[in-house]
Amino acid sequence: MINTTPFVTNPFLYSRVPYDVLKDFEPISLLSTSPVILAVHPSLPVRSVRELLQLAKSKPGALNYASAGVGTNHHIAGELFNFLGKVDIVAVQFKGGGPR
Questions:
Q1: What's the CA gap between 88 and 85, in Å, rounded?
Q2: How many CB atoms lie within 10 A of CB 19?
Q3: 56 and 22 in contact (C-beta within 8 Å)?
Q4: Dihedral, CA of residue 55, residue 60, residue 64 and residue 67, to nearest 10
Q5: Exposed/middle/buried for 12, CB within 10 Å: 0-12, 13-18, 19+?
Q6: Hey, how many other C-beta atoms are within 10 angstroms of the C-beta on 16?
Q7: pLDDT band for position 99 (50/70/90)?
Q8: Position with higher pLDDT, 78 vs 12
Q9: For residues 79 and 25, what is the distance between their CA atoms, to the nearest angstrom?
Q10: With contact defined as beta carbons under 8 Å apart, do 81 and 89 qualify?
C-alpha cells in the first residue's frame, strides 16, 4: 500500500477508523516527500512570515488559507502554523489539490 498524510492523521481527527496505523501496518520505505509552500496575494501588506504573523495576530479569524481537504498535509501544515504562531487563520477546505 502507498498512502499519504491522512492515513496517519485520520485516527486523530475522527473517532473511529477501521485500522490502527501502528499495529496493523509496518512501514518499509519512504517513497517521496511533499513540499508545502507559504505564499500570499500581492495585495496583502506583508513581505515576511513575521509580518504575516503580526497581521494575523491583529485580526484573529479574519485571514484565510486554502486546504486540499480535512486532514491533508496542507490542512495539518496550516494548523501547525496557527499553533506555533499563536494565530487564528481560518482553513478554507477544498475537495482536493487541483489539477496536476
A1: 9
A2: 11
A3: no
A4: 110
A5: exposed
A6: 6
A7: low
A8: 78
A9: 26
A10: yes
Q: How far is CA 61 from CA 45, 49, 54, 76, 88, in A?
A: 17, 17, 13, 17, 5
Q: Determine the pLDDT at residue 70.
A: 84
Which one is predicted more confidently, 22 or 64?
A: 64
Rounded to whole angstroms, the Cα distance separating 14 from 6 reads 11
What tens digit of pLDDT does each residue of 39-95 get? 999 999 999 999 999 999 999 999 999 988 888 888 889 999 999 999 999 999 998
Q: Element (H or E) spanning 81, and its range?
A: helix 73-85
Q: What does the block give as the cell for 22?
A: 501502528
- Give the gyration radius of the chain's Cα atoms: 16
What's the rounded Cα separation, in Å, for the pair 42 and 39?
Answer: 9
